[in-house]
Amino acid sequence: MDELRMFKQFISSAEHVWTQIASSPMGKTVYTVNGVDYTPLPEKYNSKRKISRIFRRYWGKQLTEAMIRNLQLRSLKGKLCVPYGVIPPFPTTVQSVQVRASLPNQRVVQAILIGKGKKITVDYRLIKTGNATSFTIMKRSGRQLDQRYRPARPVAAAPKPFINPKAAPQAKPRGKKKLLKTP
Fold first, then answer.
1. What gap in Å lies between CA 22 and CA 41, rounded to an integer?
2. What is the tally of helices (H) and strands (E) in the chain?
3. Rounded to an integer, what distance in angstroms lies between the CA atom of residue 65 and that of residue 154?
4. DSSP one-letter string for 85-151
5. CA distance 29 to 77
């Protein structure tokens, strides 16, 4: 199997895995908590560890954590649940793949994804670590535009209180004082 065909199948499978897990509980019991409907995941996805193992077949640690966070999992009545509802259509089918850069243990691949009337171009950084025979996706472009891969929102820092500069205590210099040279 040539490398381009392998990357095409690998990226297609990687793009489908989040939707596969998020849509797996359709038709099951629905629990409502604070106005949000949740439904339990099937047995093969009933823990974060199991989901993480599935994602880690394709994705690096940071992307796996982002994908799990964006599933919005919640434990209800002893079962791991996801929000119930329609999953937005994501372009997940790989139309074409092109290798942009090639190093011994990494590749930069550009793929055109299609699906549900959308067509997007995405860049992937694939890395092979150690003696592994398969690649892992370490970076993906367009993360802000896709609900599945959005990074965590930074927590806004609390505003600093206004301090009158005249009233602020002066910091004492540490160590030896440097002498200025005289002209």
1. 8
2. 3, 8
3. 15
4. SPPPP---EEEEEEEEEEETTEEEEEEEEEETTEEEEEEEEEE--TT-SS-EEEEES-TTT-TTTPP
5. 12
Distance CA 166, CA 163 (A): 9
Report how far residue 76's alpha carbon sits from residue 92's, in angstroms, rounded to the nearest whole number: 30
Q: Look up residue 59 and give its DSSP letter.
A: B
Give 14's contacts (C-beta < 8 A, 6+ positions apart): 58, 59, 137
Rounded-to-integer distance, Cα 58 and Cα 13, Å: 8
pTM for the model stands at 0.76
Task: Show the CA angle centred on residue 38, arms to residues 35 and 42, nearest 5°.
Answer: 175
pLDDT, tens digit, 9 for 90 and up, residues 31-77: 888 888 889 999 999 899 999 999 999 999 999 999 999 999 999 88
Q: Are 59 and 14 in contact (CB under 8 A)?
A: yes
